[in-house]
């Protein structure tokens, strides 16, 4: 195993996370995640509920990062307006929206009953 290569891959991956965090949408997802985690700490969640919340947060952020990667490649290969560039960007953005909406619904299904039982 090439340890040097492995360390380099991790460094690039962390740089990718840092780069993605400079995007406005990622900042919104990040702040939302922090708000959800703080709300979860105050509400009191079971281990299973935390697993679901952490998985959803990680998947929304990962989906947004893949969307950013797609946007960047599209900008590289098609800086001018092109209907296929539009299709790629809109579909990638739609994928994030689908996951974000589903996550918000699942989050509310976890939190709302707990708020009303207290
Ligand atoms: N090269 C292109 N050809 C056709 N349509 C495009 C192109 N670039 C962007 N668009 C359209 O504009 C929308 C927004 O694009 P994009 O996300 O790149 O801009 P933005 O909102 O300024 O993003 P960011 O600020 O995150 O770079 C796309 O979803 C797409 O509909």
UniProtKB/TrEMBL annotation:
Segments crossing the lipid bilayer: 30-61, 91-112
Gene Ontology biological process: phospholipid biosynthetic process
Keywords carried by this UniProt record: ATP-binding, Cell membrane, Kinase, Lipid biosynthesis, Lipid metabolism, Magnesium, Membrane, Metal-binding, Nucleotide-binding, Phospholipid biosynthesis, Phospholipid metabolism, Transferase, Transmembrane, Transmembrane helix
Subcellular location: Cell membrane
Active site, renumbered: 64
Entry cofactors: Mg(2+)
Any one GO MF annotation of this record: ATP binding
Any Pfam family matching the protein: DAGK_prokar
InterPro entries per the UniProt record, alphabetical: DAGK, DAGK_sf, UDPK
Binding-site residues for a divalent metal cation, renumbered to this chain: 23, 71
Bound cofactor: record note: Mn(2+), Zn(2+), Cd(2+) and Co(2+) support activity to lesser extents.
Residues binding ATP, per UniProt: 12, 23, 71, 80-82, 89-90
GO CC term, one of those recorded: plasma membrane
Record: residues binding substrate: 64
Principal place of residence: membrane
Membrane topology: Multi-pass membrane protein
Family to which the UniProt record says this protein belongs: Belongs to the bacterial diacylglycerol kinase family.
Protein name as catalogued: Diacylglycerol kinase family protein
The species this protein was found in: Ureibacillus endophyticus
């Amino acid at each position: 195993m090439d340890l040097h290569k492995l360390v380099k891959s991790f460094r690039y991956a962390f740089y990718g996370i840092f780069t993605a965090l400079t995007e406005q949408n990622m900042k919104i997802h990040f702040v939302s995640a922090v708000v959800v985690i703080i709300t979860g700490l105050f509400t009191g969640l079971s281990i299973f509920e935390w697993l679901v919340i952490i998985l959803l947060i990680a998947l929304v952020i990962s989906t947004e990062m893949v969307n950013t990667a797609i946007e960047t490649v599209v900008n590289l290969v098609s800086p001018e307006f092109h209907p296929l560039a539009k299709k790629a960007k809109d579909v990638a953005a739609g994928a994030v929206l689908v996951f974000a909406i589903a996550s918000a619904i699942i989050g509310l299904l976890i939190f709302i009953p707990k708020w009303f039982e207290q």
